[in-house]
Please model this.
Amino acid sequence: APASSTSGNFSQFAPDSATSPHSATAKSQKRREDGMEEVKKAKSRTAFSKEQLQTLHQRFQSQKYLSPQQIRELSADLGLTYKQVKTWFQNRRMKLKRFQNHNMWTERAQCLTQSSFQPNAYLDMHSRFHQGYPITASNIQTVPPLRQHYGAEQ
Model:
């Protein structure tokens, strides 16, 4: 979970692993057609500079989605590839969505605790929903049997 400051400002979150300058280089093995194994280095993560990140964050604040032309222009300005900028914006939108979902659940939990919500009292009051609804003769409805038709009626 990201570490946030008490100010609640989203930009105060620690950088995610995609922007971390520490990246491990992994190796993967792939069997070639001739039976020999080929060792291939996995693509390492991009370590964006502080200036690049600052520009990307500023642009994201004003515009969550970029057109392909805008991505090309921004990537040229920052010295990044089209795919790097496109992926950064996709990842950043997902990070924002996760943050908003987390805040929504946190706010709901705070609302329940502030309104003196007591789960035990709720379960005691509504225990029949948690233990199965009793079946009695008064709450069973009879359903007429379905008629099945095989071929033409005779």
Summary: The helical segments are 50-62, 68-78, 82-114, 119-125, 127-130. The domain at 50-113 is CATH 1.10.10.60 (Arc Repressor Mutant, subunit A). Strands lie at 27-31, 37-41. Residues 26 and 42 are 5 Å apart (CA to CA).
